[in-house]
Predict the structure.
Amino acid sequence: MKLFQEKNQKFIEKALKIEKRLPIAAVYPMNDEALGGAILAHEIGLVDPIIIGPQNELEKIAKSIKKDLSKYKVVDVSDSLEAAKIAVELVKKDEVKALLKGSLDTSILLKAAVAKDTGIRGDRRISNCYICDTPFYKKPLIYTDVGINILPDVKAKTQILLNALEVARSIGIHQPKVALLACLEKVKEGIPSTLDAQKLIEIAKDGIFKDAIIEGPLSFDIAFSKEIAESKNFASKVSGDVDIALFPNLDAANIAVKQLELFSKAQCGSLALGCKVPILINSRNTVAAERALSCAFAKLYYEHNK
């Protein structure tokens, strides 16, 4: 059985062409899939993980998945909060280039990452991209923001889009096509998503998004079906060829990506940008292969931006 779907396999192969493994921290990986994902990413040649968590428990998990924990550097800590703090310190010491979230709550890891005096926050707002391969779409899809910003305003959406464009370019999408999604494809007073899209289009005219092709507001069907766009006499350069879908809020994005995973057989990796290194934020039920896939995306991102 193949670990990775067709489009994702190409990303794995591309990442493996980069000779040096990426040093990462696997933060509190206290279940089979979380620990297994960090180990799988190492076994296939992507990363060198420092594993942070209670060593006795980690050894039990490793034994249950038939892996030898002694091959890896382990930082023995008793709780998830301390694990998150240590991971952040490893970034500050330049010992790791990405943080792979284990089974701790996302809020705990992000709290340590953005702490005012001790964190690793960068110059831009933190946002999360899911990079998805579904057999029902011709190319990889980037959905954002699926996990952090609840009700982003135009300023926040500008930074979310800048992060997503960085992700797209790092994986080889040189002129990303962006759909600013809303419930309809025209600007309408009283529907904030359409007004925000209109403002983002104006901002794009200043060149902040470089050569990205950005359209909005777009309804989901017009964004992803050229035939539907044509049937509605809607002229579009991105319809049916979207690389990045910028959702109006967290509810919409999170529901959409879970629908993609459940009903469209999507296999997704995750990159959250906005800190000094990418944070790979996985759901609690994310399987080991998808966690390893996120490591491949982190490696490609690092290589693109070093």
In short: The CA atoms of residues 32 and 90 lie 24 Å apart. The chain is about 40% helix and 20% strand. The mean pLDDT is 96.
